Amino acid sequence: MTLTRFAPSPTGYLHLGHVANALWVWGVADALGGRVLLRIEDHDRGRCRPEYERALLEDLEWLGLRPHLGPVRQSDAGPAYAEALASLERRGLVYACDCSRKVIAGDAGDVANEEPRYPGRCRERGLAPGPGRGLRLRLGPGVERFTDALLGEQRQEPSAQCGDLLLRDRNGNWTYQFAVVVDDLRQGIDLVIRGRDLLSSTGRQIALARLLGRERPPVFLHHPLIYRPDGAKLSKAAGDPGVRDLRAAGATPVEVLGRAAELVELRFSAPGRSPT
């Protein structure tokens, strides 16, 4: 049976973008006769807040979006991440790095609208792991090919896109890229449904999963995002209205779900806008 996941981060309140993603997740799972796991992605302990987690659980219940499994939390998965890291370390694939984001952006030329590529500055420095130092995975050259369930055939070259992958940051937090790959593998996720802003992460996650022993990656489906009138995607950081705001204004669950569905439909049909 297909297992997918809805995986919000409790760094703010749910907004319509999250609801749109949930409609995709539950809708596709229902169509396939599959199940949904609720995974709270609270790997970043500096930004996640218990009050946001409580709110998102309340909002999902209010919307009638009930998972078949979970919730499970990344903050409870430290031993699993440490074990996965150790398996990579034993093969000499991990090294310590003290580069800040500013240094990496400077090395990459700070090119607007392009992902900074880590140039391997610390690869051969032999730094000892410790406070103030992250841990990176040596990513060799190679092309990852996969078929997106919506977008078709994809080709990515992770080492050229991002360079050596950060697994644990300088503050000791497990990174998104590492945590989700370990989680999807150990939880048996075989369908990943997420926004198109994460499409570029797919090749590197497939490569990492293979190193961790996953021979067959999950199926990926990257759906369109919904946007504000100024063309920017909805964002908690930008203060876009949350589900709780809409509830306080008197909206019903059906109205909130309908509005998110309407925005998804507009995203597909808006003239002059590329679906990528």
Give the ordered list of helices and strands. Answer: EHEHEHEHEEEHEHEHEHH
Q: What is the averaged pLDDT score?
A: 89
Number of helices: 9
Taken as a percent bin, the fraction of beta residues is 15-25%
Sheet with most strands: 3 strands, parallel
- Structural class category: alpha/beta
Distance, first to last CA:
30 Å
Give an overview of the whole structure.
This protein has 276 residues and is an alpha/beta fold. The protein has a domain at 1-75 and 224-276: Rossmann fold (3-Layer(aba) Sandwich), CATH 3.40.50.620. The chain has nine helices and ten strands. The strands form four sheets. A three-stranded parallel beta sheet has the order 1-2-3. β1 (3-6), α1 (16-32) and β2 (35-40) form a beta-alpha-beta unit. The longest helix has 17 residues, at 16-32. It is globular and about 60 Å long.
Write a brief structural summary.
The chain has 276 residues and is of the alpha/beta class.
Keywords:
three-stranded parallel beta sheet; disordered C terminus; 10 strands; three-stranded antiparallel beta sheet; Rossmann fold; 276 residues
List the helices and strands and how they pair.
Elements: E1 3-6, H1 16-32, E2 35-40, H2 50-63, E3 69-73, H3 78-89, E4 94-97, H4 101-107, E5 134-137, E6 144-148, E7 152-156, H5 158-161, E8 165-168, H6 176-187, E9 191-195, H7 202-211, E10 219-223, H8 243-248, H9 253-269
Parallel strand pairs: 1-2, 2-3, 9-10
Antiparallel strand pairs: 4-5, 5-8, 6-7
Helix pairs in contact: 1-9, 6-7
